[in-house]
Structures are given as C-alpha cells and as structure tokens.
C-alpha cells in the first residue's frame, strides 16, 4: 500500500485504504531498487481537478485510483516543480517509491519575452530538480521517468538532474540509471540523453579543479570523446613549439603563469555529405586556470577561476554531441 506522514484526518483516510494490510506484509520485503516519476498538470480553473499525464492516468488505474485518492488528501494541488513521494503504493511492489511532480499549465508554450519554451522547461525542472533527485536521495538504483508529453525534455531533465561531480570524493552517491517509462517515443528519449550528456561533459570539465584539469588532460579527454563519437572527426593537439612558431605571444604570456605546458586544441567534425561545404567555426576560451594577476586579485571566489575554460568546454562538448547525433554539417572548434 503506501505510507507517508499526514495530519490526523489524513491518517484516518489512509486506514480506509488498507495501510494495516501493508504493515502486515512488511515494508522490508519490498523491492527497494526501483522508483517511478510521474507528472501532473496544474488546474486550469479554480474548481478543476488536476490532470495526470497519460502515464500518470494509466498508473492510477493500475492501483485502482489510489494515487489520485492519496494525492488529494496529502495537501493542496502541486505547483510547477513541486513533488510528493509515496511509498509501497503498488501492490506487487514494482516501484518501491512513486514521485509525483508538478508540471505547471498543460498548454504552456513558447514565452516570447524569455525566448524559451515554458512547457519543455517545466518538464526538465520537474523531472530533474524534483523527481529524479528525490529518488536519488532514497538511494534507489533505478528510476523510470514519465515522458510527460515530451520524452526529449524528460530525458534531459533526468540526466542533468542526476549528474554530480564526485570524481574526487571517497563516498559517492548511489549511481542511478534513468529510463523511459512505458512505450513512448524512445528515439526522442535517446536524443534527450545525448543532449544532456553533452552538457554534463562540459560540467565535468569546468568543475574539475585546475590541478586536475590541465591543458594536456583537457585535450586528451576531448580527443577520446570525439573519436569515440564518430569516425568523421579529426583532432590536432598543438604543443608549445607550434604555438611559438605561430608567434602567439598573448597566449604564451598567460601560459607562463603555470608549470603546465600550454596546448592549442583544434577539432574537426565533417558530417556534411558535401565535403566542400563551408564549416561553422567556434572559438572558446580554454584557460584552465587564469593565473594572470593572481597576486593582486582578491582571494574571494578565486577557486571559481577553474571554470575560466568554460568557453572551450562548451564548444568542444557541443561538437562531440553533434558528432554523436550525426548532424549533416561541418564544424571546427
């Protein structure tokens, strides 16, 4: 059945739904390795009943309307980005925990002033910051995610939300795998996973401390990721001698602030069927730690300078993603 803290009136209602049978079976026997994230929309009008997504409706029918019933007595309707978690709701214990997330208005579309799709962003935020992180805190190793009407946005939210830079931590959080719930648009889900993985690569590069993410290490990581993404790629790791030959004095002067040798990284992706098509060229700042003037800069927030290579991290990750998606364009970074 299910269990959650509620006021007295709520506890009475739960007893009617059979909690005592849940306790007689024993919570310890439940399969604690699988979670489920489902979406629900905000009310369009004051007296409207909040509408589940298609996956939410199907699950509610599977549990004989108990999801709707317990949601109604557990508090006010969920707003965008808010959640409620229920335990032991499914008789067969397929999902030890079910997280219901608020998706905002069902008809939310493009916000012209903000120049973004509010509906898609609501899905990303709800699935990431609310749904999947709730499951992660419960140390459950697997979560199925409701596509919420847009499988790509749901995948992006799930993969982005579950990411954490813990490379240097001895105690790490439980690794969680997220997959699409139901037989929805698997192609869109996979595309969302690729989009989010590209962003997470950039996050990994920027979050790494400067003594770990040296110019050489940065170049090696991008080379490995790009070559594994597609055979239509080319990587040139230019050493200090090449930089000197090009008389790149400003570049070299900044590099003098470190014992680590500088690298000028050049990457190519040739995805266009026409090799003669002009490429799109991206340039990103890749200073792994801005040591210039470090003796006269204030010390506050100096650690944030590890992300001074954010420009290079972003364009390199974007080109890796383009290669994985087999985009029909030529790119240089």
From TrEMBL:
It is an enzyme of class 3 (hydrolase). Keywords: Aminopeptidase, Hydrolase, Protease. GO terms for cellular component: cytoplasm. InterPro entries: Leucine_aapep/pepB (IPR011356), Macro_dom-like (IPR043472), Peptidase_M17_C (IPR000819), Peptidase_M17_N (IPR008283). GO terms for biological process: proteolysis. Pfam families: Peptidase_M17, Peptidase_M17_N. Residues 200-332 form the Cytosol aminopeptidase domain. Belongs to the peptidase M17 family. This is Cytosol aminopeptidase.
């Amino acid at each position: 059945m299910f269990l959650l803290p509620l006021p007295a009136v709520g506890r009475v209602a739960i007893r009617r739904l059979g909690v005592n049978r849940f306790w007689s079976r024993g919570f310890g026997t439940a399969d604690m390795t699988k979670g489920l994230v489902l979406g629900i929309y905000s009310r369009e009008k004051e007296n409207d009943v909040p509408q589940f997504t298609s996956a939410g409706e199907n699950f509610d029918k599977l549990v004989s309307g108990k999801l709707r019933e317990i949601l109604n007595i557990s508090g006010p309707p969920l707003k965008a980005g808010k959640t409620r978690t229920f335990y032991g709701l499914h008789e067969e214990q397929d999902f030890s925990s079910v997280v219901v997330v608020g998706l905002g208005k069902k008809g939310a579309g493009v916000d012209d002033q903000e120049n973004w799709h509010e509906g898609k962003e609501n899905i990303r935020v709800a699935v990431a910051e609310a749904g999947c992180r709730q499951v992660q805190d419960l140390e459950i190793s697997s979560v199925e995610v409701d596509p919420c009407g847009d499988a790509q946005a749901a995948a992006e939210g799930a993969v982005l939300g579950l990411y954490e830079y813990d490379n240097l931590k001895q105690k790490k959080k439980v690794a969680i795998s997220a997959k699409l719930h139901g037989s929805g648009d698997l192609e869109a889900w996979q595309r969302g996973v690729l989009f989010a993985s590209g962003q997470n690569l950039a996050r990994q590069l920027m979050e790494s401390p400067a003594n770990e993410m040296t110019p050489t290490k940065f170049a090696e990581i991008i080379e490995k990721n790009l070559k594994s993404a597609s055979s239509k790629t080319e990587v040139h790791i230019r050493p200090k001698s090449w930089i000197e030959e090009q008389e790149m004095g400003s570049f070299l002067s900044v590099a003098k602030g470190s014992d680590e040798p500088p690298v000028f990284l050049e990457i190519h992706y040739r995805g266009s069927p026409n090799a003669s098509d002009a490429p799109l060229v991206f340039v990103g700042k890749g200073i792994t730690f801005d040591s210039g003037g470090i003796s006269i800069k204030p010390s506050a927030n100096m650690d944030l300078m590890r992300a001074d290579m954010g420009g290079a991290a972003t364009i390199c990750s974007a080109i890796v993603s383009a290669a994985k998606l087999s985009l029909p364009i030529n790119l240089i970074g």
